[in-house]
UniProtKB/TrEMBL annotation:
Residue ranges crossing the lipid bilayer per the database entry: 7-30, 36-53, 65-82, 94-110
InterPro entries hit by this protein: EmrE-like, UPF0060
Pfam families: UPF0060 (PF02694)
Localization of this protein: Cell membrane
Topology within the bilayer: Multi-pass membrane protein
SUPFAM superfamilies per record: Multidrug resistance efflux transporter EmrE
Keywords: Cell membrane, Membrane, Transmembrane, Transmembrane helix
Protein name, as recorded: YnfA family protein
GO cellular component terms, A-Z: plasma membrane
């Protein structure tokens, strides 16, 4: 499954949205007192997230998960801003850029063998 770096990062972006939405559904249920019905779309979203990670172009699951982590950090800060209304500060932004650079390095770095 040979894909471009851009496609893989896009898959990770959609996976991050699915994971964050799924986790937020549980957050809303347990921490914000919403109905237990929030758990159903949350579970569906988390299943979509897990399936999407299998679509990542990586030879090993651990490498796919490690690179995804950088995208997840950046997507979480976007969620913080766009959904929860709390803008990230400069340290959040710098941290996210470092994480994204790490994700690209993990995905695109030369592999010896």
């Amino acid at each position: 499954m040979e894909r471009t770096l851009g496609v893989t990062l896009a898959v990770y972006g959609v996976a991050a949205l699915a994971e964050i939405a799924g986790c937020f559904a549980f957050w809303a249920w347990i921490r914000l007192g919403r109905s237990t019905w929030w758990a159903l779309p949350g579970m569906a979203s988390l299943c979509l997230f897990a399936w999407l990670l299998t679509r990542a172009d990586a030879d090993f699951a651990g490498r796919a998960y490690a690179a995804y982590g950088g995208v997840y950090v950046a997507a979480s800060l976007l969620w913080l801003w766009l959904v929860e209304g709390a803008p990230p500060d400069r340290w959040d932004a710098v941290g996210a850029l470092i994480c994204l650079a790490g994700a690209v390095l993990i995905l695109a770095g030369p592999r010896g063998g």
